[in-house]
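input
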Amino acid sequence: MQKNTPPRSTMRLTRRGRLLLIATGAVLAGTAVAVPLLTPEGHEEKKPTSLVIPEGWRASQVYTAVDKILALPPGTTRKALPTANLRLPIDAEGNPEGYLYPATYPLGEKPTPQALLTQMVDTANKKFNGAPIAAGAQRNAMNVYQAVTIASIVQAEAATKADMGKVARVVFNRLERGMPLQMDSTINYALNRFTVKTTAADTRIESPYNSYQRMGLPPTPIDNPGQDAMHAAINPVPGDWLYFVTVKPGDTRFTADYAEHQRNVAEFNRNQQSAKASQSPSTSR
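output
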C-alpha cells in the first residue's frame, strides 16, 4: 500500500530551532556544574550544594555533569549504572534515558553517582506513574514509556512551549497515518550531536533512531523531557498538521500541505544562507 508521504530524500520535518543562538555562537548544551570563582587568599572555595538538570538534556550530558560536580574521572557515573539499582520500566531495558528527571537535586553530605541517579529516576516515577500522566497515556492508547518517548521528541523539536502541543499532534498524526516520523532530532541523537542541519546522507544512516527509515517511535526516549513536554504528549492540540519547520526564531510554521511545507523549508534555507553570509569575515584587497 502506497503511503501518503512524499519521497524521503526531499522531506524535512524539524523545528530547525535556536538559530539565533547558533548565529551568535552561544552554546546549545552546557553542563550544570559549579564554575570555580576566584576567591581571596585564605578563603576556602564553597562547594556546590545542588545539581541542576535542565529540561531536554540527554543521559550522556547528565552523566558528564555528575562526574564534574562530584570531581570524578570522566565516565564514572556511566559505569555506576549497573550498581544504582534504578527502578526503570521494563521497556527501558536498563537505559535511564527519559527518566533522569529535570530538576534541582541536593547533593547531601556524601553524594555518589548512584544516589543522584536514583533521585532522578524516583522523581520521574512519581511524576509519570500517577495521574494525570498515566491516565493521559492510556487515553491515547499508549503506555507511559511511549508517552515519555513522544515527550522527548516534543522537547527536542519544539522551539517554544506554545509549539509543544502542535509538535505532539504532528507525531500522532504521522503515527496514525503510517508515515515515518522523519524527525531530525532522532537523527541527531543517533549521531550524538546537536545541530539544526540534517543532510540527505544523514537520513540514510543505519540506526534504530533513524526515523526517516524506521517506522514508529524510536526504541527509547531521546532526552529527558520536562513537565510541559509531558503535558503536550498526552494532550496534543487538535489539528491536521503533518509538517513543520522553524523558518526563523519565533516563527515555526505547521501545515498539512506538503507543497506549502516545501516553500517554508525553502525560506528557512534562504534565511540560513543569509545568516551565513552576514557572519563571513570581509576581506580587503
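quick obs: Residues 47 and 89 are 34 Å apart (CA to CA).
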